[in-house]
Specification:
Rossmann fold; binds zinc ion; 2 domains; 26% helix; globular; 338 residues
């Protein structure tokens, strides 16, 4: 094996992607080195590119949707061995000692690491990752499919399974994009009466293919009224990163309904509080999950044949790949194959 690898780095906030040769990282204690077979590109990678997130040291290799194989384990690692197929997502490890960790709530660790943000991520041939941040990839899943499931997948799967919705409940997924096209599949597989809400009527057929029971064209009809016409939603999964989108659906909640927002608008959203009071409704947020949540997502996806729609690119096409993702032109997630 060569001592060096190809990696894409960002050297400063607002800098461009540079494809460089750099030393292959050695795994430290409690770390594992992963051969990166695939790494998804996510909107959140713009935090690294633009420097719009606190605590990033440069140069940095982005990428928090890593799927690959263990090729070296550091000291004190007992859970993994060479050849294991593993993935790493946004949650890049935890401290085990802060109060949330002491309560077993690793997702809320106060000193949590973030893959590709607080340490180098998967836009490279190798990455060294804390052992507790790894999920096992089932044999049935290809690495290129597993990669986006480690961020877009876990976010929608974990938000839905931690909501109050039960089989048979009316669950709406707002937005049919990178997150939403997975959310519809999970909602259907979980046994919910699934509504796809979209402003793109051309996505109607796709929505039904993904498992939706209803399609609401929000460019033509009021989505809140449409949901009330179906009895009111128990859960609405908000994947469209827009305040207007959030505001437009709150009125569609039924009794004890909850709008769970996973796509983050970059401006405040106003909500109809009276409707929330009258329905005992709520608006909440959800982010990702820890490594076992990732593994649950991968296992459920393999069990129920949930896969992302992806475009794949080699590492040297990172600019094209990233631009397509950021311009919302990709269908629907973009994956690098280093
Ligand atoms: Zn992400
Ligand atoms: Zn902690």
């Amino acid at each position: 094996m060569s001592d060096t690898m190809r990696a894409v780095v960002v050297s400063e906030p607002g800098g461009s992607f540079e494809l460089v040769e750099r030393p292959v990282p050695d795994p430290g204690p409690e770390e594992v080195r992963v051969v990166v077979d695939a790494c998804g590109i996510c909107y959140s990678d713009s935090y690294v590119k633009e420097g719009s997130f606190p605590g990033i040291d440069y140069p940095r290799v982005p990428g928090h949707e890593i799927a690959g194989r263990v090729d070296s384990v550091g000291e004190n690692v007992t859970a993994w061995e060479e050849g294991d197929r593993v993935g790493a997502g946004w949650h890049g490890g935890h401290c085990f000692t802060c109060d949330p960790c002491r309560r077993g709530d690793f997702q809320q660790c106060e000193n949590g690491e973030i893959t590709g943000l607080t340490f180098d991520g998967g836009y490279a041939e190798y990455a060294a990752v804390p052992a507790e941040a790894l999920a096992r990839i089932p044999d049935e899943l290809d690495s290129v499919d597993a990669a986006p499931l480690l961020c877009a997948g876990i976010t929608t799967f974990n938000a839905l399974r931690n909501s109050g919705a039960r089989p048979g409940d009316l669950v709406a997924v707002q937005g049919i994009g990178g997150l939403g096209h997975l959310g519809i599949q999970y909602a259907h597989a979980a046994g919910f009466e699934t509504v796809a809400l979209s402003r793109s009527p051309d996505k109607r057929d796709l929505a039904f293919e993904l498992g939706a029971d209803h399609f609401v064209d929000a460019s033509e009809e009021d989505p809140a009224a449409a949901l009330q016409g179906l009895g009111g939603a128990r859960v609405i999964l908000g994947t469209a990163p827009s305040a207007a989108a959030v505001e437009s659906v709150v009125g569609g909640l039924g009794t004890d309904g909850e709008l769970v927002v996973v796509g983050v608008p970059h401006e405040p959203a106003g909500v109809d509080v009276q409707h929330l009071v009258m329905t005992r409704g709520a608006v909440s947020g959800w982010a990702s999950g820890h490594a076992r949540d990732s593994q649950d997502t991968l296992e459920f996806s393999a069990l129920r044949d949930v896969t992302p729609e992806i475009e794949t690119y080699p590492l040297d096409a990172v600019d094209t790949a990233y631009d397509r993702m950021m311009a919302n032109e990709a269908r629907f997630r973009v994956v690098l194959e280093p």
